[in-house]
Specification:
The chain folds into two domains: 81 residues, no CATH class; 128 residues, no CATH class. The chain contains five helices and 13 strands.
Length: 219
Amino acid sequence: MVEQMNEITPSGEGRMRASDADRDAVAHQLREALAEGRLDPEEHSERLEALYRAKTLGELVPLTEDLPAPGGDAAPAMPPTSPQSLHGARRVTAAEPTSRVAIAVMGGADRSGNWVVPNNFVAATCMGGVDLDLREARFTQRETTIWAGCVMGGIDIVAPDDIEVRVHGLPIMGGFGGGRGQSRPAAPDAPIVHVRGIAVMGGVDVRYKRRKHQRDADD
């Protein structure tokens, strides 16, 4: 079967490079098929191997085309094909966190791009700066807490408008807040990020910023 999959030549959207989110969606569908008895363990293992070798969306399609779509019994759905698919509730993933802490002492640390945020993430700085960009992030749970500790430094958090950020921190001779720039309210099932902690003679700031594909659409 794997040999047959490798013979398929993707075209059009199928030539687009697959993301981690695309692979996670297919892996979940394969797990469901194994649990339902649609695939035996050998077939499941074989398809997983092909999944993690795949580089394009076209190579992912044959892995699930004979399986029902998630949540239904109709024809399978195409894997996510664009950055727009990483949106709202679809940001919640079964993938392992890629980072759990960011610490900067008289320096800087940042997390950005397609990273996976655990349910508890720690950001701490002393006379330095930490930048956390959540615009392309995924989350292991719907509700996430970022624990922020700032002493004579700054922590900047950039969020997309399809998640909700709630700020609960305590400022002491500093600032703790934000939420500027949200263009629309998040959907009811959107991920929620709680920002908790303390800022002493420093600042923790949250602002919303448009994602690249949104800016490109406006050009």
